[in-house]
Structures are given as structure tokens and as C-alpha cells.
Design the sequence.
């Protein structure tokens, strides 16, 4: 077996990022001991808003280099409301990592976990299983830190859509839809845009349909963002892979998380051609930090995405097996009611969920 010891850069960050990361590392220890066939060599790296407050640096160049040299990055959450850069913007090294490491594909699975109530009463909601693929290096976010305020009269941010990134993004979307087909999903990719109003989006959609030609076995559809906001609430079970621009993806993925129990259940992966960062979709949650109430499920499912990606990339099937086991253990603890987290009206916090998942492994 090749490449079976993986170097993982671990960035706990701020607030509940640290809490869910500690829980996740304990679960990963139990999982690797159980499955065998690969090892995770973790190194914790400091960074985030509190680190910025204490040292004047949010995330050092040395640590950026370590992330670039690692096989994968596992990330908790960074940011704190009242700690800001002098220009008033948030401390968000995760956004810098996305751009610097070329992580164009933001993978946000939205899957109903058995036993976790969804926001919709319709019984079909238990079948929600889609992925929002958010382009993560350009779109409206290309303007981050570069917007122009003209006097106190006018402000401008500019959207950037490039052919090179869009082609890679859509190929990723189609490959993902194809892979999901092997586990019974319909093989459907839907591009979401506002091409009826903006040229940049018409360009985006055109490239989507160009790339679709290479995947005749899949269905390629398009949807306007406003209609998607409606349909994601009205009939989310009809979608499979949804691929969209950065800002639209940011918004839709929170909506998606709301459908399946909240931020504590929504994992994510930011993937490029050479690197990937795995983190829960949620932030540092200052309102519950330090209370032990944070739900580690999104972090655990993000670690499962990491194991699956490592296994696929390096041909180490034990990693894919570990990913399936971890996801299965998470599903079981909720399905049989072993845990009920505070968002669901229960009292099981971070440690209780982690213990139950380890027991279910
Ligand atoms: P960011 O902008 O950094 O993504 P945010 O300010 O949008 O973060 P979050 O930190 O994600 O917000 O928190 C949003 C809400 O969801 C808060 O009320 C928080 O308590 C809740 N929340 C987030 N993550 C979890 C979790 N893992 N478990 C329980 N509740 C959570």
C-alpha cells in the first residue's frame, strides 16, 4: 500500500473551532486504530482572530507553507466578531488559503441525516441528498479587499468569472455527479446563475454547457438563482449536484444547512487540483463557544470527506473504508436516538456526541 501515512495540518482556530476539532481528533484516533492500513500524522498550527489579537499575525507564512506541504488540511473555524483588521474586515485566513492554494471547488454536501429532523414537513425531505459546489476563488469574492468607495457617494465591487477556473469547476461538478451515480444518485448537474441579467453569468452558463458535452451520460440543467432559492425550499430532493458562483454558493449552502438541521450538521471541503482543506460550514459561533454545546457532527463529516479524498487521490482504499465507517457511525447515533444535540432540543454537547460516535465505530 502506497502513501499510507498522511501528514495532516490541523488548524483548530477560534471559538468552537477548537472544541469540535478536539472532538474530531479523538474520533479519528479511534477510527484509525479500528480500520488500520493508514496513519494520520497530525500537526496543530496556531492561527485565527485570537492569535491575531495576541501576536499581530492571523496566520504566519511559515504555517501557510506547512499547509501547502501537508497531504490535507483539517480546519475548525476562524474569526471573532470584535477582532478585526484595521480596515474593519474579518480575520479570515480560510479565504486566503482558498485563493493561495487554488481551492476552486467548495464542496458542501447537504444530506438529511436519519433521525435528525429536517426543516420541511414533507416526508420526501428525509431523502435530501445533494451537493452545493461553490466556486471559491473568484466570482464576487474576487473583489474582496479591492472594492472602491468613491467619496461617500458610490461603492463598487466587481465580479470576476474566468474560463480557466469555470472549466475546472464544471469538470469537477460532472465528475462528482458521475461518482455519485454509482451510489444511486441520478447523475444530474445544475448550474445556478443570473444569466438573464449579467454577461458574466451568461459566460459562466455557456462554459457549463460546453463542458457538459464531455459527459453525455449525465444530465446538465440550468436554473436562475432566484428560482433556486425557491426550489431548494420547495423540492430539494429533486437536485443532485448544484454548481454555482462563489457568493451565490455561500448563501445557498447556509440555506441548505438550514434544511437538514442547522450549521452543526453541514460539512465542507475546499478542493483544488493539488490541495484540499476540510472544515465544517459553520464559523466560530461566539454565542455558544466555551459552553460545550457545539455540535461536532459537521466537523466529523468534514473529516470523513478528507478521508474519502485522500483514499481516492492516493489509491488507499482503507481511507475510503474509514470514511464510510465514520459517516455510518454518525448516522447511527442520530438514527437510533442515542444522542440529541441542543439545536434539536436535547442536552448532548460536543463530548457526548464524540463519545457516542466512538462507541458506534
Ligand atoms: P462565519 O461568518 O464565520 O461563517 P457566522 O457568524 O455566520 O460564521 P456561525 O459561527 O456559523 O456564524 O454561527 C451561526 C449560528 O449557528 C450561531 O447561532 C451558532 O451558535 C450556530 N452554530 C454554528 N455552528 C454550530 C455547531 N457546530 N453547533 C451548534 N450550533 C452551531
Sequence:
Amino acid at each position: 500500500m502506497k502513501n499510507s501515512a498522511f501528514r495532516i495540518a490541523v488548524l483548530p482556530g477560534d471559538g468552537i473551532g477548537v472544541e469540535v476539532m478536539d472532538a474530531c481528533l479523538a474520533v479519528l484516533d479511534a477510527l484509525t486504530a479500528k480500520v488500520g492500513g493508514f496513519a494520520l500524522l497530525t500537526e496543530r498550527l496556531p492561527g485565527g482572530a485570537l492569535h491575531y489579537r495576541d501576536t499581530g499575525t492571523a496566520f504566519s507564512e511559515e504555517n501557510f507553507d506547512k499547509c501547502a506541504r501537508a497531504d490535507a488540511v483539517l480546519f475548525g473555524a476562524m474569526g471573532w466578531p470584535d477582532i478585526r483588521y484595521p480596515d474593519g474586515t474579518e480575520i479570515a485566513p480560510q479565504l486566503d488559503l482558498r485563493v493561495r492554494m487554488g481551492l476552486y471547488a467548495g464542496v458542501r454536501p447537504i444530506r438529511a441525516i436519519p433521525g435528525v429532523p429536517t426543516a420541511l414537513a414533507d416526508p420526501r425531505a428525509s431523502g435530501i441528498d445533494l451537493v452545493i459546489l461553490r466556486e471559491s476563488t473568484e466570482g464576487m469574492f474576487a473583489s474582496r479587499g479591492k472594492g472602491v468607495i468613491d467619496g461617500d457617494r458610490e461603492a463598487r465591487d466587481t465580479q470576476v468569472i474566468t474560463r480557466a477556473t469555470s472549466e475546472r469547476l464544471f469538470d469537477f461538478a460532472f465528475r462528482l455527479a458521475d461518482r455519485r451515480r454509482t451510489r444511486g444518485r441520478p447523475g444530474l448537474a445544475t448550474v445556478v446563475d443570473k444569466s438573464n441579467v449579467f454577461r458574466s453569468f451568461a459566460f459562466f452558463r455557456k462554459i457549463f454547457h460546453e463542458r457538459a458535452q464531455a459527459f453525455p451520460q449525465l444530465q446538465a440543467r440550468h436554473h436562475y438563482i432566484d428560482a433556486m432559492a425557491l426550489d431548494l425550499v420547495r423540492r430539494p430532493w429533486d437536485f443532485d449536484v448544484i454548481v454555482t458562483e462563489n457568493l451565490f454558493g455561500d448563501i445557498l449552502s447556509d440555506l441548505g444547512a438550514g434544511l437538514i438541521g442547522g450549521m452543526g450538521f453541514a460539512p465542507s471541503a475546499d478542493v483544488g487540483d493539488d490541495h484540499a482543506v476540510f472544515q465544517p460550514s459553520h464559523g466560530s459561533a461566539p454565542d455558544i463557544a466555551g459552553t460545550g454545546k457545539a455540535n461536532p457532527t459537521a466537523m466529523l463529516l468534514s473529516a470523513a470527506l478528507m478521508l474519502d479524498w485522500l483514499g481516492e487521490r492516493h489509491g488507499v482504499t482503507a481511507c475510503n473504508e474509514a470514511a464510510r465507517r465514520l459517516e455510518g457511525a454518525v448516522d447511527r447515533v442520530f438514527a437510533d436516538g442515542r444522542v440529541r444535540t441542543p439545536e434539536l432540543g436535547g442536552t448532548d454537547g460536543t463530548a457526548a456526541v464524540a463519545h457516542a460516535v466512538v462507541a458506534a465505530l
Notes: The CA atoms of residues 140 and 247 lie 6 Å apart. The chain is about 40% helix and 20% strand.
